[in-house]
Amino acid sequence: MSTIENQAAFLTAVKARPLQVGPAPMPTPQGSEVVVQVHSAALNPVDPAIQNMGILVPADGYPYVLGFDFAGVVHAVGPDNTRFKVGDRVTALRAQGSAHGGFQLYAIPSIATKIPDHVSFNEGSVLGLGMTSAAYSLFEKTTLALDLPKPGGNKPNGKVLLVWGGASSVGACAIQLAKAAGYTIAATASAKNFDLLREIGAEHVFDYNKDGVVDDIVDTLKDKGDMAGVFSAIARPDSVLLQCAVISGRLEGKRHVGTVRPVGFPPVANWPEQIEVSDCMPRESFQSGVVPAIWGDWLEGALADGTMKCRPQFEVVGRGLDAVQGAVDLMGKSVSGKKLVVEMV
């Protein structure tokens, strides 16, 4: 009888390249954990940042496995797991720790949700970090504090949320989450991504490259209802956040800019005092219950009925662990309106 073996693409040291493909420990699920056989793993901007800048990994955290977002099949379940069974198809977000990244054949996620048969593994892999970051920035009491979406959808509440950078993975998740929670959505992107914004629920779309876009947004939204706030799904540059602050200050309603910037980023210079700002620390949402609420019954049902679409669209850029380094390098360049994916199976 053959023994199943694991392999991973390892970051062996600070800023080491290329990633080294080799044997990895076969994870064993404890408590309510599951082990997922990874079929597709998606890239995030943080992946090349970790490799190229040497950030986020402690000195004793190497070798490290990159990859936050993945989808696949449940291979094993812990003794306390009552939600999943072997063979379930899932989308997942990596667990904490150096060995739990998605760029390996078998991984333990921190959280997972079943995906219906009509959602492919490539599609399902695009959600993880984007969904979790958007949930934190929208729904935590210390951020924009929006109403959580309920299974089946919330009634429209007449309030408007502006999402800056709506074609990004975080922005696309934020638009759909807030739409399901009952908010009217305005969003910015480059003009080539307007169809994507409309497909996922934005009612008002704006080209953030256009001169005078701030005035256009204010003029359009000033009589559309009170603002629920502004969410910036672009971490940099600071000029983007200052534009968001100007918009928030000129419209009625909540004067708060939620951002996807990680907690600990330097503060934005010349930030107006009357505008609140919050950064992103999605790990805290596991303790508060926000992330489990989104990733639980709501996401499973929303994927099944089409309320939540796996956007932006995926683009397969390689197959197998040997393709991961090239995919990370591509992610380090300009990527717009799509999610890069490596197929593992």
Brief rundown of the structure:
The protein has helices spanning 46-53, 121-124, 128-139, 169-180, 194-199, 213-221, 238-250, 284-288, 290-305, 324-331, and strands at residues 6-11, 20-24, 34-42, 64-65, 69-77, 89-94, 106-107, 109-114, 160-164, 184-189, 204-207, 227-232, 256-262, 276-280, 313-319, 338-343.
Description of the molecule:
- Pfam families: ADH_N, ADH_zinc_N.
- This is Chaperonin 10-like protein.
- One of its GO terms (molecular function) is oxidoreductase activity, acting on NAD(P)H.
- It comes from Roridomyces roridus.
- The chain is an alpha/beta fold.
- Helices cover 27% and strands 26% of the residues.
- It contains 10 helices and 16 strands.
- Strands 3, 5, 6, 7, 8, 15 and 16 form a 7-stranded mixed sheet that branches. A 6-stranded parallel sheet has the order 11-10-9-12-13-14, with helices on both faces.
- Helix 7 links the parallel strand 12 and strand 13.
- Helix 3 packs across helix 4, helix 3 crosses helix 9 and helix 6 runs parallel beside helix 7.
